[in-house]
Design a protein that fits this description.
This protein has one domain: Rossmann fold (3-Layer(aba) Sandwich). It contains 6 helices and 12 strands. Helix content is about 30%, strand content about 30%. It is α/β, with parallel strands linked by helices. The chain is globular and about 70 Å long. The strands form 3 sheets. Strands 1, 4, 5, 6, 7, 8, 9 and 10 form an 8-stranded mixed beta sheet that branches. The chain has a two-stranded antiparallel ribbon with strand order 2-3. Helix 1 packs antiparallel against helix 2 and helix 2 packs parallel to helix 3. The protein binds 5-O-phosphono-alpha-D-ribofuranose. The site of 5-O-phosphono-alpha-D-ribofuranose has 17 residues, from strand 8, helix 4 and helix 6. 5-O-phosphono-alpha-D-ribofuranose binds next to strand 8, helix 4 and helix 6.
């Protein structure tokens, strides 16, 4: 797998707005949507293309390209923080089938300083995954990696895709290594990798709790 940092200046500008504690709910949510769109366009760069020819209204042939398997995409969102990002990703993958997983970190069993959380998965609904599908799993924060690993464990019961991509706004090196140790072929897309996890498992400097900031 590869680790791709989306370093487009516009993505980094939006990230700065998301980090800023003065950014309110509406702007925060909008920022996540816009980042989802940018990351989606970045992901498409990694899709194969093939050559085609079309005829223009001038009756002349023009060479062009098509993106292979762009309609064979499943997007799984971890509720609830991933919802705005997925709205943005759908601009790049309008034909995607959508799955949801409701997962939360069980804070009260967490030993301060521990790099693992127990994950409580409630409702989930995942479309059937086929061998030629690209699976994109979205969770804005990748802190210890516990949530994404539990999510992938459930998602893979619905079939094995051709390729798996995870999408995050901010991750930690620790979690990226943990995910890749378990699933070496996954491609991880992030807008930033932050240096620290605090005692409570929050990314530092981070942006706070993405779900709370987007939805109150
Ligand atoms: C936060 O913790 C985020 O929204 C994620 O769902 C989760 C990530 O933390 P971790 O499981 O990677 O530590 O609630």
């Amino acid at each position: 797998g590869r680790v791709i940092i989306v370093d487009h200046p516009l993505a980094q500008d939006i990230l700065t707005t998301l980090r800023d504690k003065r950014t309110g709910q509406i702007e925060f949510r909008k920022g996540l949507v816009r980042l989802g769109r940018l990351v989606g366009y970045e992901i498409i760069k990694s899709f194969e293309t093939y050559n085609v020819e079309v005829e223009t209204p001038l009756g002349v042939k023009a060479r062009g390209i098509r993106i292979k398997d762009v309609d064979k995409v499943i997007i799984v969102q971890v509720l609830r923080a991933a919802m705005p990002m997925v709205e943005g990703l759908l601009k790049a993958f309008p034909a995607a089938r959508i799955g949801v997983v409701s997962a939360r970190r069980v804070e009260n069993t967490h030993v301060p300083g521990s790099m693992e959380f127990q994950i409580d998965v409630g409702y989930y609904r995942i479309p059937e995954i086929h061998g030629d599908d690209t699976l994109i799993v979205v969770d804005p924060m990748l802190a210890t990696g516990s949530t994404i690993l539990s999510t992938l464990n459930i998602v893979y019961r619905h079939g094995k895709p051709k390729r798996t991509i995870t999408v995050h706004v901010i991750g930690t090196r620790y979690a990226i290594d943990r995910v890749l140790a378990k699933y070496p072929d996954i491609d991880v897309y992030l807008v930033a990798v932050d240096p620290e996890l605090n005692e409570r498992g929050f990314i530092v400097p981070g942006l706070g709790d993405a779900g709370d900031r987007a939805y109150g």
